[in-house]
Amino acid sequence: MTDTTSRVPVVGRLGRTEFIVLVASLVAVNAFAIDIMLPGLQQIGASLGEADPNRRQLVIPAYLLGFGLLQLVFGPLSDRFGRRGPLLVGLGIYCVAALFAFSTSNFNALVALRFIQGSGAAASAVIATALVRDVFAGNQMAKIMSLVFTVLMLSPILAPSLGQGLMTVMDWRGLFGFMAGWGAIVIAWVWWRLPETLQPEHKRPLSLKAVIEGFGIVFANRISLAYIIGMAALFGALMGFLNSSQQIYRDVFGVEAMFPLFFAGGAACSALGGMVNAQLVNRYGMRLLSWLALGVFGAAALTILVAALLHALPLWLFFGLSAVQFLVFSMILSNFGALAMEPLGEVAGTAASTQGFLQMVPGAAIGILIGQVFDGTVIPLAVGYVAMVALTAACVRLMAGKGRVAG
Entry's CDD domains (predicted)? Predict the structure, then answer.
Protein backbone atom coordinates (compact mmCIF):
# COMPACT_ATOMS: atom_id res chain seq x y z
CA MET A 1 0.00 0.00 0.00
CA THR A 2 1.16 3.53 -0.59
CA ASP A 3 1.99 5.89 2.22
CA THR A 4 -1.06 8.01 1.57
CA THR A 5 -3.55 5.18 1.43
CA SER A 6 -6.86 6.09 3.07
CA ARG A 7 -9.25 3.36 2.11
CA VAL A 8 -12.13 4.74 4.20
CA PRO A 9 -12.50 8.53 3.99
CA VAL A 10 -13.40 10.45 7.10
CA VAL A 11 -16.98 11.41 6.27
CA GLY A 12 -19.45 13.97 7.51
CA ARG A 13 -18.10 17.08 9.19
CA LEU A 14 -15.18 15.28 10.82
CA GLY A 15 -11.96 16.23 9.02
CA ARG A 16 -8.51 14.65 9.35
CA THR A 17 -7.24 16.97 12.09
CA GLU A 18 -10.40 16.65 14.17
CA PHE A 19 -10.30 12.88 13.71
CA ILE A 20 -6.77 12.75 15.12
CA VAL A 21 -7.71 14.97 18.07
CA LEU A 22 -10.78 12.86 18.80
CA VAL A 23 -8.79 9.62 18.76
CA ALA A 24 -6.21 11.23 21.04
CA SER A 25 -9.03 12.28 23.38
CA LEU A 26 -10.21 8.67 23.54
CA VAL A 27 -6.71 7.62 24.53
CA ALA A 28 -6.58 10.43 27.11
CA VAL A 29 -9.76 9.08 28.77
CA ASN A 30 -7.75 6.11 29.97
CA ALA A 31 -4.47 7.93 30.55
CA PHE A 32 -6.05 10.54 32.81
CA ALA A 33 -7.92 7.88 34.77
CA ILE A 34 -4.60 6.36 35.83
CA ASP A 35 -2.21 9.27 36.28
CA ILE A 36 -4.66 11.75 37.78
CA MET A 37 -5.19 9.39 40.73
CA LEU A 38 -1.57 9.37 41.93
CA PRO A 39 -1.76 12.51 44.14
CA GLY A 40 -4.99 11.32 45.79
CA LEU A 41 -4.18 7.78 46.93
CA GLN A 42 -3.25 8.68 50.49
CA GLN A 43 -6.23 11.00 50.95
CA ILE A 44 -8.58 8.36 49.54
CA GLY A 45 -7.33 5.78 52.04
CA ALA A 46 -7.60 8.19 54.96
CA SER A 47 -11.08 9.36 53.95
CA LEU A 48 -12.48 5.84 53.48
CA GLY A 49 -10.83 4.34 56.55
CA GLU A 50 -8.23 2.18 54.77
CA ALA A 51 -5.09 2.31 56.92
CA ASP A 52 -2.94 -0.17 54.96
CA PRO A 53 -0.90 1.83 52.39
CA ASN A 54 -0.46 -1.26 50.22
CA ARG A 55 -4.22 -1.75 49.97
CA ARG A 56 -4.63 1.89 49.01
CA GLN A 57 -2.64 1.10 45.86
CA LEU A 58 -5.41 -1.28 44.71
CA VAL A 59 -7.22 1.70 43.21
CA ILE A 60 -4.71 1.58 40.33
CA PRO A 61 -4.33 -2.16 39.54
CA ALA A 62 -8.09 -2.74 39.89
CA TYR A 63 -8.61 -0.27 37.06
CA LEU A 64 -5.83 -1.82 34.96
CA LEU A 65 -7.24 -5.33 35.45
CA GLY A 66 -10.66 -4.33 34.13
CA PHE A 67 -9.01 -2.36 31.36
CA GLY A 68 -6.87 -5.30 30.24
CA LEU A 69 -9.48 -8.05 30.43
CA LEU A 70 -12.42 -6.28 28.77
CA GLN A 71 -10.39 -5.39 25.70
CA LEU A 72 -10.97 -9.00 24.67
CA VAL A 73 -14.72 -8.32 24.74
CA PHE A 74 -14.94 -4.92 23.07
CA GLY A 75 -12.79 -5.97 20.12
CA PRO A 76 -15.20 -8.64 18.79
CA LEU A 77 -18.18 -6.41 19.66
CA SER A 78 -16.79 -3.59 17.54
CA ASP A 79 -16.17 -5.99 14.65
CA ARG A 80 -19.82 -7.09 14.80
CA PHE A 81 -21.74 -3.90 15.59
CA GLY A 82 -19.35 -1.23 14.32
CA ARG A 83 -17.20 1.20 16.25
CA ARG A 84 -19.69 3.83 17.41
CA GLY A 85 -22.13 1.70 19.42
CA PRO A 86 -19.64 -0.26 21.58
CA LEU A 87 -17.56 2.89 22.03
CA LEU A 88 -20.52 4.86 23.39
CA VAL A 89 -21.50 1.95 25.68
CA GLY A 90 -17.96 1.68 27.06
CA LEU A 91 -17.68 5.42 27.64
CA GLY A 92 -21.07 5.38 29.35
CA ILE A 93 -19.91 2.63 31.74
CA TYR A 94 -16.77 4.65 32.44
CA CYS A 95 -18.76 7.78 33.33
CA VAL A 96 -21.37 5.99 35.46
CA ALA A 97 -18.67 4.17 37.44
CA ALA A 98 -16.87 7.49 38.02
CA LEU A 99 -20.10 9.08 39.29
CA PHE A 100 -20.72 6.21 41.72
CA ALA A 101 -17.09 6.42 42.86
CA PHE A 102 -17.64 10.14 43.47
CA SER A 103 -20.33 9.34 46.05
CA THR A 104 -19.05 6.10 47.60
CA SER A 105 -18.07 5.88 51.26
CA ASN A 106 -16.58 2.37 51.21
CA PHE A 107 -13.04 1.57 50.07
CA ASN A 108 -13.83 -1.93 48.82
CA ALA A 109 -16.72 -0.53 46.80
CA LEU A 110 -14.35 2.05 45.32
CA VAL A 111 -11.95 -0.70 44.23
CA ALA A 112 -14.83 -2.58 42.56
CA LEU A 113 -15.99 0.60 40.84
CA ARG A 114 -12.48 1.19 39.55
CA PHE A 115 -12.53 -2.28 38.00
CA ILE A 116 -15.83 -1.41 36.31
CA GLN A 117 -14.50 1.97 35.20
CA GLY A 118 -11.45 0.33 33.65
CA SER A 119 -13.72 -2.20 31.93
CA GLY A 120 -15.58 0.64 30.23
CA ALA A 121 -12.36 2.44 29.31
CA ALA A 122 -11.22 -0.71 27.48
CA ALA A 123 -13.63 0.23 24.69
CA SER A 124 -11.90 3.57 24.12
CA ALA A 125 -8.46 1.94 23.90
CA VAL A 126 -9.48 -0.87 21.53
CA ILE A 127 -11.69 1.21 19.29
CA ALA A 128 -9.26 4.13 19.08
CA THR A 129 -6.75 1.75 17.46
CA ALA A 130 -9.43 0.18 15.25
CA LEU A 131 -10.61 3.61 14.09
CA VAL A 132 -7.12 4.49 12.90
CA ARG A 133 -6.81 1.13 11.13
CA ASP A 134 -10.21 1.63 9.46
CA VAL A 135 -9.24 4.99 8.00
CA PHE A 136 -5.48 4.82 7.35
CA ALA A 137 -2.93 2.23 6.24
CA GLY A 138 0.80 1.81 5.86
CA ASN A 139 3.18 4.54 6.96
CA GLN A 140 0.32 7.01 7.16
CA MET A 141 -1.24 4.84 9.87
CA ALA A 142 2.05 4.82 11.79
CA LYS A 143 2.21 8.62 11.49
CA ILE A 144 -1.27 9.00 12.97
CA MET A 145 -0.44 6.52 15.76
CA SER A 146 2.68 8.55 16.54
CA LEU A 147 0.65 11.74 16.94
CA VAL A 148 -1.85 9.92 19.17
CA PHE A 149 0.97 8.38 21.20
CA THR A 150 2.41 11.87 21.72
CA VAL A 151 -0.80 12.90 23.46
CA LEU A 152 -0.72 9.70 25.54
CA MET A 153 2.79 10.40 26.80
CA LEU A 154 1.93 13.99 27.71
CA SER A 155 -0.52 12.69 30.32
CA PRO A 156 2.16 11.77 32.92
CA ILE A 157 3.26 15.41 32.75
CA LEU A 158 -0.17 17.00 32.96
CA ALA A 159 -2.38 14.56 34.87
CA PRO A 160 -0.62 14.48 38.29
CA SER A 161 -0.44 18.28 38.35
CA LEU A 162 -4.09 18.48 37.31
CA GLY A 163 -5.02 16.04 40.04
CA GLN A 164 -3.08 18.03 42.63
CA GLY A 165 -4.75 21.20 41.42
CA LEU A 166 -8.23 19.71 41.68
CA MET A 167 -7.50 18.59 45.22
CA THR A 168 -6.73 22.15 46.27
CA VAL A 169 -10.38 23.13 45.67
CA MET A 170 -12.06 19.77 46.38
CA ASP A 171 -11.17 16.55 48.10
CA TRP A 172 -10.31 13.36 46.19
CA ARG A 173 -13.88 13.09 44.92
CA GLY A 174 -13.14 15.93 42.56
CA LEU A 175 -10.86 13.57 40.62
CA PHE A 176 -13.82 11.34 39.78
CA GLY A 177 -15.96 14.35 39.01
CA PHE A 178 -13.38 15.45 36.46
CA MET A 179 -13.22 11.98 34.92
CA ALA A 180 -17.00 11.79 34.61
CA GLY A 181 -17.13 15.25 33.05
CA TRP A 182 -14.34 14.53 30.59
CA GLY A 183 -15.98 11.25 29.62
CA ALA A 184 -19.30 13.02 29.04
CA ILE A 185 -17.63 15.55 26.73
CA VAL A 186 -16.06 12.75 24.69
CA ILE A 187 -19.42 10.91 24.51
CA ALA A 188 -21.10 14.03 23.10
CA TRP A 189 -18.23 14.50 20.63
CA VAL A 190 -18.46 10.91 19.41
CA TRP A 191 -22.26 11.04 19.19
CA TRP A 192 -22.42 14.20 17.10
CA ARG A 193 -19.25 14.10 15.02
CA LEU A 194 -17.80 10.60 14.58
CA PRO A 195 -19.08 8.64 11.58
CA GLU A 196 -19.12 4.85 11.48
CA THR A 197 -15.76 3.80 10.02
CA LEU A 198 -16.29 0.04 9.81
CA GLN A 199 -17.43 -0.91 6.33
CA PRO A 200 -20.44 -3.30 6.18
CA GLU A 201 -18.46 -5.96 4.31
CA HIS A 202 -15.95 -6.11 7.20
CA LYS A 203 -18.53 -6.84 9.90
CA ARG A 204 -18.17 -10.24 11.50
CA PRO A 205 -20.89 -12.33 13.13
CA LEU A 206 -20.88 -12.38 16.92
CA SER A 207 -20.85 -16.07 17.74
CA LEU A 208 -18.42 -18.15 19.74
CA LYS A 209 -17.16 -19.74 16.55
CA ALA A 210 -16.70 -16.37 14.82
CA VAL A 211 -14.91 -14.90 17.84
CA ILE A 212 -12.57 -17.90 18.05
CA GLU A 213 -11.94 -17.61 14.32
CA GLY A 214 -11.17 -13.91 14.71
CA PHE A 215 -8.62 -14.53 17.43
CA GLY A 216 -7.30 -17.43 15.36
CA ILE A 217 -6.64 -15.04 12.46
CA VAL A 218 -4.62 -12.81 14.78
CA PHE A 219 -2.58 -15.63 16.33
CA ALA A 220 -2.04 -17.31 12.95
CA ASN A 221 -0.47 -14.19 11.45
CA ARG A 222 3.19 -14.58 12.35
CA ILE A 223 4.12 -11.02 11.42
CA SER A 224 1.38 -9.41 13.48
CA LEU A 225 1.95 -11.73 16.44
CA ALA A 226 5.69 -11.02 16.40
CA TYR A 227 5.14 -7.29 16.77
CA ILE A 228 2.47 -7.81 19.45
CA ILE A 229 4.86 -9.97 21.51
CA GLY A 230 7.59 -7.38 21.00
CA MET A 231 5.27 -4.63 22.26
CA ALA A 232 4.43 -6.71 25.35
CA ALA A 233 8.11 -7.26 26.15
CA LEU A 234 9.02 -3.59 25.78
CA PHE A 235 5.93 -2.51 27.69
CA GLY A 236 7.10 -4.84 30.46
CA ALA A 237 10.46 -3.06 30.47
CA LEU A 238 8.67 0.29 30.77
CA MET A 239 6.49 -1.02 33.62
CA GLY A 240 9.63 -2.26 35.35
CA PHE A 241 10.95 1.30 35.29
CA LEU A 242 7.66 2.76 36.51
CA ASN A 243 7.49 0.26 39.38
CA SER A 244 11.02 0.91 40.64
CA SER A 245 11.77 4.45 39.44
CA GLN A 246 10.83 6.21 42.67
CA GLN A 247 13.02 3.83 44.69
CA ILE A 248 15.88 4.32 42.23
CA TYR A 249 15.81 8.10 42.46
CA ARG A 250 15.37 7.90 46.25
CA ASP A 251 17.68 5.05 47.30
CA VAL A 252 20.30 5.05 44.55
CA PHE A 253 20.64 8.75 43.75
CA GLY A 254 19.12 10.42 46.84
CA VAL A 255 16.92 12.90 44.95
CA GLU A 256 13.44 11.78 46.00
CA ALA A 257 12.15 15.37 46.19
CA MET A 258 12.99 15.90 42.52
CA PHE A 259 11.45 12.62 41.35
CA PRO A 260 8.33 14.27 39.80
CA LEU A 261 10.58 16.49 37.68
CA PHE A 262 12.65 13.56 36.42
CA PHE A 263 9.45 11.60 35.73
CA ALA A 264 7.97 14.50 33.79
CA GLY A 265 11.21 14.89 31.85
CA GLY A 266 11.06 11.28 30.71
CA ALA A 267 7.44 11.66 29.65
CA ALA A 268 8.32 14.80 27.70
CA CYS A 269 11.00 12.86 25.83
CA SER A 270 8.43 10.19 24.93
CA ALA A 271 6.11 12.87 23.59
CA LEU A 272 8.99 14.29 21.56
CA GLY A 273 9.73 10.84 20.19
CA GLY A 274 6.17 10.53 18.96
CA MET A 275 6.43 13.83 17.12
CA VAL A 276 9.79 12.89 15.61
CA ASN A 277 8.43 9.56 14.42
CA ALA A 278 5.43 11.27 12.81
CA GLN A 279 7.81 13.45 10.81
CA LEU A 280 10.19 10.67 9.75
CA VAL A 281 7.99 7.63 9.15
CA ASN A 282 6.79 8.59 5.67
CA ARG A 283 10.37 9.18 4.58
CA TYR A 284 12.14 6.20 6.13
CA GLY A 285 9.37 3.68 6.79
CA MET A 286 8.10 1.90 9.87
CA ARG A 287 10.46 -1.08 9.80
CA LEU A 288 13.70 0.85 9.40
CA LEU A 289 12.78 3.32 12.14
CA SER A 290 11.72 0.45 14.41
CA TRP A 291 15.03 -1.38 14.07
CA LEU A 292 17.07 1.80 14.52
CA ALA A 293 15.09 2.86 17.58
CA LEU A 294 15.33 -0.64 19.08
CA GLY A 295 19.09 -0.59 18.56
CA VAL A 296 19.41 2.76 20.30
CA PHE A 297 17.24 1.54 23.19
CA GLY A 298 19.37 -1.59 23.56
CA ALA A 299 22.64 0.34 23.41
CA ALA A 300 21.43 2.69 26.16
CA ALA A 301 20.34 -0.31 28.26
CA LEU A 302 23.75 -1.99 27.88
CA THR A 303 25.51 1.25 28.82
CA ILE A 304 23.39 1.57 31.98
CA LEU A 305 24.10 -2.06 32.90
CA VAL A 306 27.87 -1.83 32.39
CA ALA A 307 28.12 1.50 34.22
CA ALA A 308 26.07 0.13 37.13
CA LEU A 309 28.22 -3.00 37.38
CA LEU A 310 31.34 -0.79 37.43
CA HIS A 311 29.76 1.53 40.03
CA ALA A 312 30.23 4.39 37.57
CA LEU A 313 26.64 5.51 36.94
CA PRO A 314 26.10 9.11 38.09
CA LEU A 315 22.65 10.65 38.10
CA TRP A 316 23.23 12.76 34.99
CA LEU A 317 24.25 9.71 32.95
CA PHE A 318 21.33 7.59 34.14
CA PHE A 319 18.79 10.31 33.43
CA GLY A 320 20.35 11.15 30.07
CA LEU A 321 20.29 7.52 28.91
CA SER A 322 16.76 7.09 30.28
CA ALA A 323 15.66 10.17 28.35
CA VAL A 324 17.06 8.66 25.15
CA GLN A 325 15.25 5.40 25.90
CA PHE A 326 11.95 7.19 26.46
CA LEU A 327 12.36 9.09 23.19
CA VAL A 328 12.94 5.98 21.07
CA PHE A 329 10.45 3.90 23.08
CA SER A 330 7.52 5.90 21.73
CA MET A 331 8.90 5.48 18.20
CA ILE A 332 9.12 1.70 18.64
CA LEU A 333 5.62 1.28 20.05
CA SER A 334 3.99 3.55 17.46
CA ASN A 335 5.56 1.64 14.58
CA PHE A 336 5.15 -1.81 16.11
CA GLY A 337 1.47 -1.07 16.76
CA ALA A 338 0.92 -0.05 13.15
CA LEU A 339 2.90 -3.02 11.79
CA ALA A 340 0.89 -5.41 13.97
CA MET A 341 -2.43 -3.96 12.77
CA GLU A 342 -1.63 -3.57 9.07
CA PRO A 343 -2.24 -7.21 7.99
CA LEU A 344 -5.46 -7.49 10.04
CA GLY A 345 -7.82 -4.92 8.60
CA GLU A 346 -10.66 -7.45 8.29
CA VAL A 347 -10.58 -8.08 12.06
CA ALA A 348 -9.27 -4.71 13.25
CA GLY A 349 -11.36 -4.67 16.42
CA THR A 350 -10.37 -8.19 17.48
CA ALA A 351 -6.75 -7.47 16.53
CA ALA A 352 -6.72 -4.27 18.59
CA SER A 353 -8.22 -6.06 21.59
CA THR A 354 -5.70 -8.91 21.35
CA GLN A 355 -2.87 -6.42 21.01
CA GLY A 356 -4.08 -4.44 24.02
CA PHE A 357 -4.61 -7.52 26.17
CA LEU A 358 -1.26 -9.10 25.38
CA GLN A 359 0.53 -5.80 25.88
CA MET A 360 -1.20 -4.94 29.15
CA VAL A 361 -1.45 -8.24 31.05
CA PRO A 362 1.87 -10.03 30.31
CA GLY A 363 3.62 -6.66 30.10
CA ALA A 364 2.37 -5.69 33.54
CA ALA A 365 3.48 -9.08 34.91
CA ILE A 366 6.99 -8.56 33.50
CA GLY A 367 7.05 -5.09 35.02
CA ILE A 368 6.02 -6.41 38.43
CA LEU A 369 8.78 -9.04 38.27
CA ILE A 370 11.42 -6.43 37.41
CA GLY A 371 10.18 -4.11 40.14
CA GLN A 372 10.06 -6.82 42.81
CA VAL A 373 13.75 -7.74 42.40
CA PHE A 374 14.93 -4.19 43.07
CA ASP A 375 17.99 -4.53 45.31
CA GLY A 376 19.03 -0.95 45.94
CA THR A 377 20.88 -0.67 42.60
CA VAL A 378 19.96 -0.03 38.97
CA ILE A 379 21.27 -3.46 37.93
CA PRO A 380 17.94 -5.40 38.02
CA LEU A 381 16.24 -2.75 35.88
CA ALA A 382 19.13 -2.69 33.40
CA VAL A 383 19.14 -6.50 33.17
CA GLY A 384 15.39 -6.38 32.52
CA TYR A 385 15.91 -3.80 29.78
CA VAL A 386 18.57 -5.85 28.02
CA ALA A 387 16.57 -9.08 28.31
CA MET A 388 13.40 -7.52 26.90
CA VAL A 389 15.27 -5.90 24.01
CA ALA A 390 16.90 -9.23 23.16
CA LEU A 391 13.53 -11.01 23.33
CA THR A 392 11.91 -8.39 21.11
CA ALA A 393 14.67 -8.43 18.52
CA ALA A 394 14.79 -12.23 18.37
CA CYS A 395 11.02 -12.57 18.17
CA VAL A 396 10.55 -10.00 15.41
CA ARG A 397 13.57 -11.24 13.46
CA LEU A 398 12.58 -14.91 13.59
CA MET A 399 8.82 -14.54 13.16
CA ALA A 400 8.53 -11.47 10.95
CA GLY A 401 11.96 -11.06 9.41
CA LYS A 402 13.46 -7.66 8.77
CA GLY A 403 11.00 -7.18 5.96
CA ARG A 404 11.37 -4.36 3.53
CA VAL A 405 12.91 -1.64 5.64
CA ALA A 406 11.41 1.13 3.63
CA GLY A 407 7.83 0.22 4.42
Answer: MFS_MdfA_MDR_like
